[in-house]
Amino acid sequence: MEEKSRIQKILAASGVASRRKAEELLSQGRVTVNGRVAHVGDSAIPDKDRLAVDGQPVVTGGKKIYLALHKPRGFVTTLHDERGRRCVAQLVEDVGERVYPVGRLDKDSEGLLLLTNDGEFANRVAHPKRHVAKTYRVTVRPSVTEEQLNQISTGIVIEGRRTAPAKVRVLQQELGRVVLEIVLYEGRNREIRKMCQALGLEVARLKRIAVGPVRLGMLPQGKYRELTKEELRALTAEVKKGEKSYDSGETHGKSGRRESSAGRGRRR
């Protein structure tokens, strides 16, 4: 007899949503199994029962897809937007499989966004406890002080909670603008923008250039590519390292890191 699994587990493994979000979909009556509305607590047989969300079939088997997308500004990180805004799903329509964003990148930001149909992979990479490093190139105005750099590297209280220590260095400095490289180890919503706002800095441009060992490189805006086997191995290794650090009580970037003034420049 084929083994059944909870529907929220199947949806998460298929990349539709996290288990918590899948439970919300079930509570809202948006999930069907073999044409009948499913409920929280119901089970199904993967690869046999027909699951659908909002009438769209859920693919529970087949090839796993892992993509790197260069998200342009103006696109929201979702598959569908009730306000009619452009979604990243429009940029990967020709993939042939339904893929989902791993984490988020806000509408006004650009750069590297991972997408996949592997729900377990997405949850492991995006979960805050894994501390997967995310690297950003941030242009701020008008200038930045030593004290502001120290605050970014050691943490800033935002909405009643201090941000995790980050790595920051100056890449380029001109009259009226400074380009920073900031590495974060947590996934709070619009974290860099909120940090800069708290410090009185205007963010002119924010671009994610890496997620763990996966780099954006020269990928054109609006285009995507498949992750290489080497990138997947390296990313999986970083996730496992983060899990071990979390389980042992360690944290990444514990003291924060910043280059001294003598170390500034255009180095990447």
TrEMBL record:
The segment(s) forming the RNA-binding S4 domain are: 5-65
Task: Name the enzyme's class.
Answer: isomerase
Query: Which cellular components does GO assign to this protein?
Result: cytosol
Question: Region Disordered: which residues?
Answer: 238-268
User: Entry's PROSITE patterns?
Assistant: PSI_RSU, S4
- TM regions (residue ranges): none
Superkingdom of this protein's organism: Bacteria
Concerning its family, UniProt says:
Belongs to the pseudouridine synthase RsuA family.
Quote the PANTHER family the UniProt record gives.
Answer: PSEUDOURIDINE SYNTHASE FAMILY PROTEIN-RELATED, RNA-BINDING S4 DOMAIN-CONTAINING PROTEIN
* Full protein name: Pseudouridine synthase
What species was this sequence derived from?
Answer: Candidatus Acutalibacter pullicola
